[in-house]
């Protein structure tokens, strides 16, 4: 088992799916571009937060996915063998998340420090 971080762009639209025993998950594909080639990462997410994050994305959106990786070989329609990854996503980070976190941090920094005990700071 390999834990890793995969970054790339969403290919198609992530989909809600139902598995055996009515388990729900989200499936997505990420295209990872390297210097030599493009690799497809087949992503599934069982974690609710990861599912919501994937479902908020559209085709072409940049994304980073952390989780368990399994390297695979995939045969395309022409019979060419290409590397691929299966990923069970535990966490998803998109450009939206980064913007949202930066905005929240700026709001915190701009907030008045009314709750701070200034007398203790001077000690």
Description:
This protein is of the alpha+beta class and 123 residues long. The chain has a single domain (2-112), classed as OB fold (Dihydrolipoamide Acetyltransferase, E2P). The chain contains 3 helices and 5 strands, in the order βββαββαα. The chain has helices at 48-55, 95-110, 118-122; strands spanning 2-18, 24-33, 38-45, 62-75, 81-94. It has a 5-stranded mixed barrel with strand order 1-2-3-5-4. A hairpin with a 5-residue loop joins β4 (62-75) and β5. The longest helix is centred in the last third of the chain and has 16 residues, at 95-110. The protein is globular and about 65 Å long. The chain starts with a strand and ends with a helix. The mean pLDDT is 85.
How is the topology of this model organized?
Elements: E1 2-18, E2 24-33, E3 38-45, H1 48-55, E4 62-75, E5 81-94, H2 95-110, H3 118-122
Sheet/helix structural class: alpha+beta
- Please give the CATH class: Mainly Beta
* Straight-line distance between termini: 51 Å
Structure summary, number of beta strands: 5
Shape: globular
Q: What proportion of the residues form beta strands (DSSP E)?
A: over 45%
Q: What would the average pLDDT be, to the nearest integer? A: 85
Please provide the ordered H/E string of secondary-structure elements: EEEHEEHH
Largest sheet: 5 strands, mixed, barrel
Weakly predicted, low-confidence segments: none
Total of DSSP H or I helical runs spanning 4+ residues: 3
Level-2 CATH architecture: Beta Barrel
Helix content: 10-25%
Based on CA atoms alone, the radius of gyration comes out at 20 Å
- What name goes with the CATH superfamily? Nucleic acid-binding proteins
Q: What is the fold-level CATH name, i.e. the topology?
A: OB fold (Dihydrolipoamide Acetyltransferase, E2P)
Number of structural units classed as domains: 1
In spatial order, strands of the major sheet run 1-2-3-5-4
